Amino acid sequence: MEEKQMEKQMSRRNFFAGAGMFLTGAAVSAAGCSMLGAKPPAEQTKAAWPYPYKKVDPELVRKLAHKGYYKGK
Length: 73
Description:
It is a single chain. By secondary structure, this protein is mainly α. The protein has a domain at 1-37. It is 62% helix and 0% strand. The chain contains 3 helices and no strands.
């Protein structure tokens, strides 16, 4: 029985199929192992807005945007 298996040539398709299954299994097991030691996420607090709101002049913003667009900024 072993002699027949040794004589049989492995096709390229079978080789890549086997390699793909092996790599998929390795990736899944690595992901599973990394999750075993993971700590639960810390409580997230809502960050305060860094700047107070200021009313802007729409015409000034339009001119600055137009100028910046053509300067390439």
